[in-house]
Amino acid sequence: MTEVLRYAAFTAQGRGGNPAGVVLDATGLSDDEMLRIAAEVGYSETAFLTEHRGSDHYRVRYFAPLQEVPFCGHATIATGVALAERGAGESMVLETNAGPVAVHTRSADGEIVAELTSVAPSSEAADEELVVAALGALRWRRDELDSGYPIEVADAGARHLVLVTRTRERLGDLDYDFEALALLMRAHRLITLQLIWPETVERYHSRNPFPTGGVIEDPATGAAAAALGGYLRKHSCVAPDSAFTIVQGVDMGRPSEITVRLSADESGVRVSGAAHPIV
Known about the structure:
alpha+beta; Diaminopimelate Epimerase, Chain A, domain 1
């Protein structure tokens, strides 16, 4: 019988976070079996370590209840903490479908914090057809967006449409057409929408619809956080060598905190947070 560990990642003061499943030994499991297990777990993603390549080097795959995804940040954080609790070294590499992701763990204030370094981020202008359809499915108006932020598809291992609102009230009122948005996102290979309200240059509020995975909304999305970091660095919205916090899950009753760190070059984005076993 396959053992599934359950962790909440990107918790805030030990609360909230995004639940993830972690299977530390998925050797021999087929694609269909991993998808079935992810559906039974019911979280937005479950990570499966399909191969241990030695020296804390692992092959990992991520499955949502309805599909495989190339990279998942919160399940990576959960996996790093789960391995650290079982005696793994402080540094490890996870070979994802998107590329190698380095993970470092440390103890801080009585809990384990993991930091991942994404693949190199990129972003490109979103097609006008996609923008119009996405706003329609969200039931949002274009004039509710902040015109200072380009509408782009950002990628740091998974693709996310970045939409920045002018007000926290607009972000807080999320009531979208699930089926219409799911169809649109599949057509454009999007994993989530990265809906953002910038409180300051050091603090951003986020919500992430994920209908393609069979989930209405993610409480904390590490892959989208990495993509956003690359997007903000590209457009000089933040200093090239800086850090900021993403607050997510508040509107769902699962407050989460994601720390994002950037370097001055265009290398991978560092994303960190705590994770705790779900009892």
